[in-house]
Amino acid sequence: MREDQVNYNKINNSNSSNRRVDINDLLSRVRDDEKKQKKENLVFFSLIASVIVITGIIASL
Predict the structure, then answer these.
(1) Across the chain, which distance is largest between two alpha carbons, in Å?
(2) Which end of the chain, N or C, is less packed with Cβ atoms under 10 Å?
(3) Which residues cross the membrane (predicted)?
(4) Cα–Cα distance between 61 and 57 in angstroms, integer?
């Protein structure tokens, strides 16, 4: 093996052993994303409903 390959393998092995995935972190991230998406949807639909109500009020005058 060349020296570059040996160094690359050492770096690769050290990174993979230090990195761990915590399922609780992943689940909390997913929950946060879902909350954010629900909030965005609520704002969007509220805006649409407001536009419809305002248009109805203007049309009835």
Answers:
(1) 84
(2) C
(3) 41-59
(4) 7
